[in-house]
Amino acid sequence: MTNDRYTEVTDKPRVEYKNLLVDSGDKIAIVTINRPEVLNALNQETLREIKQAFDNLARDPQVKVIILTGSGSKSFVAGADISFMQPLNAVQGFEFARNGQEAFMSIEGCPKPVIAAVNGFALGGGNELAMACDLRIAAETAKFGQPEINLGIIPGFAGTQRLSRLVGKTKAKEMIYTGEMIGANEAYQLGLVNKVVSPADLMTEAVKIAVKIAAKSSVTLKLAKSAIDIGLETDFNTGSIHEAELFGLCFATEDQKEGMAAFLAKRQAEFNDR
Known about the structure:
disordered N terminus; 2-enoyl-CoA Hydratase, Chain A, domain 1; 4-stranded mixed beta sheet; 11 helices; Lyase 2-enoyl-coa Hydratase, Chain  A, domain 2; alpha/beta; 2 domains
């Protein structure tokens, strides 16, 4: 790693996006929301591109971990594009919300770990976008919140669902009812983010964690993500049975044989993602 960004090193044709930058190399992809002139606000086109990018990366065998961030130093994503939303009617509002939910489900449902590197404002749809990721690393200057109440609306990209699951029902209601922002340190204390670092160290830390994860078996990572995510959406007994089923599947993989053989031989495992 020599730069803050990876460059394209695969032989596959590069997909061009209007509102995203997608770079990949060394098993890690970096997706950047690139609308700095509007603080990376989300419009319909950007949501479509997010879904397309994550669907493509999910199928890319060269990518094991994805980092998601925003362009510039001020904002991760400041929210949904208000100028786009203002004239919508009820039916259009529903459709916009569902489009956003589907885009973010492509992140949450991606079989590969996704790390949000939150470099500034993560408000409204920006906070919802970060919450769809597996891990969140925040710059000390980052701000989080669901300020939709100040616009006469509620969160629409599953913010009411993910926020309550991450910080608890009472705190989620406080944040959504008041629309107030919280800083990165409070977000860390609430369990909304995993780590807080200086702005200058944000991408370095995100890449450091991504490199550590990319050294693991992609098969096992996929099974672990499924066990956690599906288990949280069901009762304890059903989740435990699902975990046991996935645990059993691990023993049908080459990587389980390699991992345990390496441990017994006291050497570093070399996983082949099979």
